[in-house]
Amino acid sequence: MNRLLLSFLTALFMSTPSVAQLTVYVSPTGSDSNSGTIDHPYLSVSKAYSVVAAGDTIFVRGGTYSLSNTISLSNKSGADSTHRCYIFAYPGEHPVFDFSAQASSDGIKLNGNYLYVKGLESSYAAHNGIAVNGSYNIVENCSIHDNRNTGLQLGNGASYNRMINCDSYYNYDPPTGGNADGFAPKLDVGTGNYFYGCRSWQNSDDGWDGYLRPSDSVTTTIENCWSFMNGYLKDGSPITTGNGNGFKMGGGDNSNGDSLRHEMTLKDCLSFDNRVKGFDQNNNRGSMTLLNCTAYRNGTYNFSIPGKRRVDETVTLENCISLGSSGVTLLAPLVLATNSWMSPFTISNADFISLDTTGVRGPRKPDGSLPDIPFMHLAQGSQFINAGTDVGLPFNGTAPDLGAFESVYDLAVGESQWIPNLFELKQNYPNPFNPSTTITFSVQADGPATLSIYNLAGQRIAELFHGTARHNLLYKFVFDARRLTSGTYFCVLSSNGYRSVRKMVLMK
Questions:
Q1: Residue 21: per-residue pLDDT
Q2: Which residues in the chain land under pLDDT 50?
Q3: How high is the mean pLDDT of the chain?
Q4: Is 248 a catalytic residue?
Q5: What is the model's pLDDT at position 418?
Q6: Phi-psi region of 114 (alpha: psi -120 to 50; beta: other; left: phi over 0)
Q7: For position 208, what pLDDT does the model report?
Q8: How many CA atoms lie within 13 A of 135 on its CB side?
Q9: Which residues contact 80 (CB under 8 A, 6 or more apart)?
């Protein structure tokens, strides 16, 4: 690493004035007349939120909170990407919000911007378990279940929110069950919302629903997410009043006569055993991109994109797998490459280690990521290993595998020939660039890693990666800077105590 550059960045970040931050505590045994300290906690999140400012933290102690009113989190003056309001479960504890006594409205409402909610459970709300109406919020490691409408819904122009490692299940809206989805970036939702590592199961309507009214031309990205058994009740019985799809990618009223577009991208997603369809167009008129997605044993179709789109919109399916009798229905024109139903492939059960779904609802790993189970992973020697098209996602071997799970069988042989085993942030290419550039990195050992972009003022303007990185994968990202002005930017990689910085120049 360039020592002068590192010294410059260190001085730059250290020069930012520090501001004393407040930490308050909430407990089921607390009182809102208390001082909010760990020894004298508040009883309610609402009280705690009324005393904090941007940059402060609320720790919620474990236990059950029986509530009849919505927890409404409004905007805080001065909030930005470096001054969020944090509402976190106390480390090692599990707070449960039970809204059974609620007569109407949502359980938790994120009406503000730059909120970070982590480790909470929201259940039995009269409407949505969590409603995200603001922008640039993060919802992580939350469990949302048994609510009387959708588990987590984004609306009211909500944009650029991130939902990470959340579970949404058993949501049912009485009396018919026709509207309760697991996750719903829908209706009047804004753009740029992102889901990663989330699971959605046994919701009465859909796992994910991107149906629009009146929003148009909004983007949503769903990555490394599982959706299964939607359209079935908690006891396993089917419910025909719900749509029962895994990922419903868009649509609108009256067969979408308004030609509303939900620009939907799905990467490394798994959809199985849903009552009707695995991946469903639902008369979406926008672009749909499905990369390395796996569908298995859905009721009618695994992949269903049979309808018209606007002439300037594209549909892309690459490196996808469809297994079972439900099949695929697609309407040209399409961009197709190396999917399991295309020549020269002939798929069979033998291509997979296991088709046993045991563990799909199991506990997450300590970092909140999805459990490691053999279900739908490729068997050694499968025709789909190293048989895909490079679509910009990290992969092992000479080419990507097909499907949602990248195999590691080749790691024992010739690893040093193609698998990096070192901490390295490569120089972006091209550099200078306009408007996009490719950034590649690897890490020396498995562990948490972040890849961020900073401007000359030391402000983080983008976070390209935040999660657990594996030492045997090469990570590649395309950074799109079309909304930024010309100038110098810095790409910073941090992992396991190591740090590397690369200088990038945007020239427009």
A1: 87
A2: 1-19, 410-420
A3: 91
A4: yes
A5: 37
A6: left
A7: 98
A8: 10
A9: 54, 114
pLDDT of residue 421: 59
Copy the structure tokens of residue 316. 């892309």
Among the listed residues 209, 220, 99, 226, the one whose alpha carbon sits nearest the alpha carbon of residue 153: 209
Tell me how long the chain is: 508
Q: Which residue has the tokens 């739908």?
A: 376
106 assigned to some structural domain: no
Q: State how far the Cα of 88 lies from the Cα of 61, in Å rounded to an integer.
A: 9
State the pLDDT at residue 419. 45
What is the number of other CB atoms lying within 10 angstroms of the CB of residue 422?
A: 9
pTM for this one? 0.80
Residue 365: inside a domain: no
For residue 417, the SS3 value is helix
Q: What is the domain extent for residue 432?
A: 424-506
32 Cβ neighbours under 8 A, 6+ residues apart: 42, 43, 44, 47
- How far is the C-alpha of 163 from the C-alpha of 179, rounded, in Å? 20
Return the half-sphere exposure (C-beta side, CA atoms, 13 A cut-off) of residue 94: 5
Instruction: Give the model's pLDDT for residue 20.
Output: 59
Of 363, 379, 381, which is closest to residue 371 (Cα–Cα)?
363
Tell me, what CATH number does 443's domain have? 2.60.40.2550
Of 270, 212, 222, 221, nearest in space to 246 by CA: 270
Terminus-to-terminus CA distance in the chain, angstroms? 27
Three-state secondary structure string covering 79-101: CECCECEEEEECCCCCEEEECCC
CA distances (Å), 39 to each of 30, 31, 118, 327, 340, in order? Answer: 9, 11, 22, 59, 59
The one-letter amino acid at 118: K
- Is the separation of the CB atoms in 117 and 126 below 8 Å? no
**Rounded Cα gap, residues 154 and 188, in angstroms:** 8
CB 264 within 8 A of CB 293: no
User: Which tokens in the block code for residue 53?
Assistant: 């400012």
pLDDT at position 106, please? 98
Q: Which one of the listed residues 76, 118, 248, 267 is annotated catalytic?
A: 248
What was the pLDDT predicted at 469? 85
Q: Of 191, 174, 329, 182, whose CA–CA distance to 245 is shortest?
A: 182
**Residue 449 falls inside a structural domain:** yes
> 101-133 burial, b if ≥16 CB within 10 A, otherwise e?
ebeeebbbbbbbbbbbbbbbbbbbbbbbbbbbb
CB atoms within 10 A of CB 33: 9
128 is a domain residue: no
What values do phi and psi take at 368, rounded to 5?
Answer: 90, -5
Tell whether the torsion through CA atoms of 36, 42, 44 and 50 is positive or negative. Answer: negative
CA geometry: angle 201, 91, 106, nearest 5 deg: 45
Counted domains in the chain: 1
CA distance linking residue 332 with residue 35, whole number of Å: 64
Per-residue confidence (pLDDT) for residue 284, from 0 to 100: 97
**CA angle, corner 88, sides to 127 and 69, nearest 5?**
30
